[in-house]
Design brief:
Elements: H1 4-14, E1 28-31, E2 43-49, E3 55-60, E4 66-71, E5 77-80, E6 92-98, E7 104-109, E8 115-120, E9 126-129, E10 138-143, E11 149-154, E12 160-165, E13 171-174, E14 179-187, E15 193-199, E16 204-209, E17 215-218, E18 223-231, E19 237-243, E20 248-253, E21 259-262, E22 271-275, E23 281-286, E24 292-297, E25 303-306, E26 318-324, E27 330-335, E28 341-346
Antiparallel strand pairs: 1-28, 2-3, 3-4, 4-5, 6-7, 7-8, 8-9, 10-11, 11-12, 12-13, 14-15, 15-16, 16-17, 18-19, 19-20, 20-21, 22-23, 23-24, 24-25, 26-27, 27-28
């Protein structure tokens, strides 16, 4: 139900990963949000970390209903449900992104199955909204410190298009030229947007859209598919691209358009997901048994693998790193051997 699944599909089914690396002597805290279920697929899933270490994400309860949560740096939790969110299985509040100052965005699934985007300010004020042409749903993915949001909507023909919405409520729909499917990922405080799209030629590319509406597209070296997953205020973009051999590689694209690709040593594939203000990237990989491992890559290219305590050791389990902040703190989630999901903070 969200573009985030595309990256997971690449990591889980299209690529075999092998990870190596030393684990730094850091503190990793594993946590469960209040109300988290304890059976297969339930649990706590962070999706962003603010500059002070506040974490936001979603929790799935024992009835498979989704709720938002906020974890303060000291470990105190605040749960929230956006008005209009349904209370049946697979319904509720889905958190998808968090800005450095604590704005949160995502979407809700209502009781009738419809999807609506939301943005939540640091003071708790929440607004839901729909793109004018979002007949089949509006899904927010990224938010900046001003409260501007980006994401995608699905039209009456089930085609996805990009949107940007200002904090004041002005929503603009847009697509790169010859797009057949588009999803915007993040937005800087100056209104620069990144995202991914598929063209009429069947090429999957990344794009950067300036605040004046000008769109520049890009692909990774020899890529058959390029996906954006995160961007910082310096306009560094990270994500993954897949080459002709169906191998995924992580990358960082700077504001000048220079693309640096990277792989965790010993791997045949890498997924980038979050990027800090200094260009530090976090993401995930998996070993030869398809057990997941998180990682963090500093701007000098040093890569450290992250395995949170309690992470599973069976296929489809492990550790995934999702967000990294200005302090270098990393958040994400683990899947244990019972396929229950837990959040973590590495600092």
């Amino acid at each position: 139900m969200r573009k985030y699944k595309l990256a997971l599909a690449i990591a889980a089914s299209a690529i075999l990963f092998v990870a190596t690396g030393a684990i730094a002597k850091t503190k990793i805290i594993v946590f469960d949000a209040p109300g988290a279920g304890t059976t297969h697929g339930d649990g706590t899933k962070p999706f962003g970390i603010a500059k002070d270490g506040t974490i936001a994400g979603q929790v799935t309860d024992s009835s498979n209903v989704f709720h938002g949560f906020i974890r303060a740096p000291g470990g105190t939790f605040t749960s929230f449900d956006v008005t209009g969110a349904g209370t049946a299985s697979s319904q509720g509040t889905y958190v998808q992104g968090m800005s450095s100052d604590g704005h949160i965005t995502g979407y809700i699934v209502a009781s009738n199955g419809s999807n609506h985007a939301f943005v939540r300010a640091p003071d708790g004020t929440t607004a839901t909204f729909d793109a004018p042409d979002g007949t089949r749903g509006t899904f927010a993915r990224g938010v900046n410190d001003l409260g501007d949001t980006v994401g995608y909507y699905t039209d009456i023909n089930s085609v996805s298009h990009c949107f940007v919405r200002t904090a004041g409520g002005t929503l603009t729909e847009f697509d790169p030229k010859r797009s057949t499917s588009c999803s915007a990922t993040d937005i800087t405080d100056k209104g620069v947007i990144d995202g991914s799209y598929a063209s009429t030629k069947g090429v999957h590319s990344g794009f950067v859209r300036k605040s004046n509406g000008k769109i520049t597209t890009f692909v990774g070296p020899d890529a058959t598919m390029t996906i954006t997953e995160g961007m910082n205020n310096a306009q560094d973009v990270t994500g993954e691209y897949v080459d002709a051999a169906s191998v995924a590689h992580g990358y960082v694209r700077d504001r000048k358009g220079n693309v640096t690709s990277f792989d965790v040593p010993g791997q045949v594939g890498t997924v980038g997901f979050g990027v800090a203000p200094d260009g530090t990237v976090c993401g995930w990989t998996a070993d030869s048994k398809t057990v997941g491992h998180g990682y963090v890559r500093t701007p000098d290219g040093t890569i450290t693998v992250i395995d949170a305590p309690g992470a599973g050791t069976a296929s489809g389990t492990g550790t995934l790193a999702i967000g990294v902040n200005v302090k270098g703190w990393v958040t994400g989630f683990t899947v244990d051997n019972n396929n229950v999901v837990h959040g973590f903070l590495r600092k």
